[in-house]
Amino acid sequence: MVEDIRSLIVDGAWPPGSRLPVETDLAERYGVSRMTMNKALGQLAREGFLVRRKKSGTQVAQPRAESAVVAIADIRDEVRRSGRAYRFRLLARRTRPGKEEDALLLGGATGGGPVLWLQGLHLADDRPFCLETRLINPAAAEGATAQDFAALAPGAWLLQAVPWSVASHRVRAVNATAAEAKLLEIAVGEACLEIVRRTNAAGDWVTGVRLLYPGSEHQLVANFGPEAGAAPARG
């Protein structure tokens, strides 16, 4: 049963984005109980073949977007490479004093000056793809406070407008909180990929960002040669 459904997906009989029949219909088709079918679909979801959502049911997963471990990629490109339409939706934007909690994004204090705090959703075919929470240092990113970021995502604008010299990444697996799950339209506690990044220029921080991807939507890749462990890469 699991092998048959997996083959239907791999062979293209059920293409990416297609909706599966409801569990009861699938259980009847394969002559098993609904509980057994639920476990089978859960296994395929964990393997990355399916995406299960409360409101829209079970769908065949889209090809996973890829980004390099050490590169700063434009999320627009990640989505478009997977053949889907990209859109950014700003959820919140405000200028406020720096807080102690900002150190989690920045790896250090803000220095006490004002920060621009933003949160938004990157969408692929109008489905949540990545939840972004970002701090920008207005003193280092000239013109940031004049941007409304209603359509152009802050990361894309920063890549175009603000030079940076040093970046640091932290990558880990986390479980979605209730608030995050609601925004990403996934189950509470679902595995997600978290990327936290900070960039600096001329000795001052420019931006700190937390990117949260549903685990079924994203993977990291790294290309390296036999000497990769001998010395740090330069670029």
TrEMBL record:
Domain HTH gntR-type: 1-63
SMART domains noted in UniProt: HTH_GNTR, UTRA
Key words, A-Z: DNA-binding, Transcription, Transcription regulation
InterPro entries: Bact_HTH_transcr_reg, Chorismate_lyase_/UTRA_dom_sf, Tscrpt_reg_HTH_GntR, UTRA, WH-like_DNA-bd_sf, WH_DNA-bd_sf
Keyword DNA-binding attached: yes
Pfam families reported in the protein's UniProt record: GntR, UTRA
SUPFAM superfamilies per UniProt: Chorismate lyase-like, Winged helix' DNA-binding domain
CDD domains: WHTH_GntR
Domain of life: Bacteria
Protein known as: HTH gntR-type domain-containing protein
Organism: Methylobacterium platani JCM 14648
Organism placement in taxonomy: Bacteria, Pseudomonadati, Pseudomonadota, Alphaproteobacteria, Hyphomicrobiales
